[in-house]
Automatic annotation (TrEMBL):
<comment type="similarity">
    <text>Belongs to the leucine-binding protein family.</text>
</comment>
<dbReference type="InterPro" id="IPR028082">
    <property type="entry name" value="Peripla_BP_I"/>
</dbReference>
<keyword id="KW-0029">Amino-acid transport</keyword>
<keyword id="KW-0732">Signal</keyword>
<dbReference type="GO" id="GO:0006865">
    <property type="term" value="P:amino acid transport"/>
</dbReference>
<dbReference type="InterPro" id="IPR028081">
    <property type="entry name" value="Leu-bd"/>
</dbReference>
<dbReference type="InterPro" id="IPR000709">
    <property type="entry name" value="Leu_Ile_Val-bd"/>
</dbReference>
<dbReference type="Pfam" id="PF13458">
    <property type="entry name" value="Peripla_BP_6"/>
</dbReference>
<protein>
    <submittedName>
        <fullName>ABC transporter substrate-binding protein</fullName>
    </submittedName>
</protein>
<feature type="domain" description="Leucine-binding protein">
    <location>
        <begin position="41"/>
        <end position="388"/>
    </location>
</feature>
<feature type="signal peptide">
    <location>
        <begin position="1"/>
        <end position="27"/>
    </location>
</feature>
<keyword id="KW-0813">Transport</keyword>
Length: 399
């Protein structure tokens, strides 16, 4: 009897050890507890542009995303789950983005993805849909609002087309002296071209004349020829769809040529990183503001300050694109929080679709997602460079 009892105890102990080691993906990392119930880790994939053509804005954006995930984990995670961000630099190259996407899906088994560029995001749409992975791109392409083609893509800021429409509406309402004439300056990429046709259509609709279009490369160090061609059309305004580097080139060359056109940049042309490279040529430049500047006194900055203090850093060392990345990760985490099943892509999608008028403490316009609409907002603000600093001069508005 003693031998049988010892054998039974050994078998029970072995079974208990085997059960304790099982659990699939959720047991991949050290579990946390909520109400006595152990939870696991939710993996999120991320595509960063650190070394590519848009790395000037991509680097601080990526830092903001990583910072928010670290911050939320320091608070115990979400409903007992820790969030693991699996991210790599893809250098703004579509093949590399596709390769990393496959790795995140197959090897890392992520439940959602924080993406980046327009071309790669649009190239991945069919795969994202088939794999049921919520995808938060830093691209605000109008195409991503198409729910039939992109049911798992979410926009966390006004689309490029909505930004352009709002700028055109502002021009129409504030211009004096006849029909306003507008030029469009953009790069020859999916990102650059994204809002152009919509801008032209809307301008025609509201009575604004598009008089010229010029293409300037993302890494251009000279835009003299394009600006001389534009100058012949004498536009009152020029809308820029670029990042900081090309925008600075445009502004500096325009100053050298004595061009008095009012330049207005969409969101990736706007931000503190523009100022040191554009110098005094940036004075008077107007930018679309989708996310707050760190120096704005807003309730949402409290969390950012708390996180940075824990790292021995200061808010003054960060820029608007850091805030943009922070907010994007925050919105995704809110969807995870709302999800009945936060470990699956479909569960997170349903959680995101419960978000209504999410208050971001002023860091961005409130966002709302529904089963029929994944465009979180169409609201922007405008800021003007005065004495070397962007100063916001409008409330949030749409077209």
């Amino acid at each position: 009897m003693k031998k049988k009892g010892a054998l039974l105890a050994t078998l029970l102990l072995g079974a208990s050890m085997l059960f304790g080691c099982s659990g699939g993906d959720k047991a991949a990392t050290e579990p946390t507890k909520e109400g006595g119930k152990e939870q696991g880790t939710i993996k999120i994939g991320a595509l960063f542009d650190i070394t590519g053509a848009t790395g000037d804005v991509g680097t601080p954006y990526a830092e903001g995303e990583k910072a928010y995930i670290e911050y939320i984990n320091s608070k115990g995670g979400i409903n007992g789950y820790k969030i693991e961000l699996v991210g790599q630099d893809y250098a703004y190259k579509i093949p590399e983005a596709q390769k990393l996407y496959q790795k995140y899906k197959s090897s890392d088994k992520v439940s959602a993805i924080l993406g980046w560029g327009t071309a790669d995001t649009e190239a991945l749409r069919q795969q994202v849909t088939a794999d049921e992975l919520p995808f938060f791109s830093a691209s605000y392409s109008e195409n991503l609002k198409n729910m039939k083609e992109s049911p798992y893509n979410f926009l966390t800021a006004a689309s490029y087309s909505d930004q352009a429409r709002s700028v055109l509406r502002w021009i129409k309402e504030n211009h004096t002296g006849g029909t306003p004439k507008v030029a469009l300056i953009y790069n020859d990429t999916a990102f650059g071209k994204s809002p152009i046709q919509d801008a032209k259509d809307f301008a025609k609709e509201i009575g604004v004349e598009i008089v010229d279009e010029q293409i300037v490369d993302l890494k251009a160090l000279d835009a003299t020829s394009q600006l001389l061609n534009m100058k012949k059309k004498a536009p009152d305004y020029a809308i820029i769809q670029q990042t900081w580097g090309a925008t600075a080139t445009i502004l500096k060359d325009a100053k050298k040529l004595g061009i008095e056109t009012q330049f207005i940049g969409l969101n990736w042309a706007t931000g503190e990183g523009l100022l040191p490279i554009a110098g005094d040529a940036a004075e008077g430049f107007i930018g679309v503001v989708t996310h707050a500047f760190p120096y704005e006194d807003l309730p949402g900055m409290a969390e950012v300050k708390e996180y940075l203090a824990s790292k021995g850093e200061k808010l003054e060392d960060k820029n608007q694109k850091f805030i943009q990345g922070w907010v994007t990760a925050k919105i995704l985490v809110e969807g995870i929080k709302q999800a009945d099943d936060p470990t699956s892509g479909e569960g997170i999608r349903q959680g995101l679709e419960k978000i209504k008028d999410l208050d971001l403490g002023g860091l961005a316009a409130p966002v709302t997602f529904t089963a029929d609409n994944h465009a979180g907002t169409n609201q922007i603000r405008l800021a003007k460079v005065e004495n070397g600093q962007f100063k916001v001069f409008t409330d949030y508005f749409g077209y």
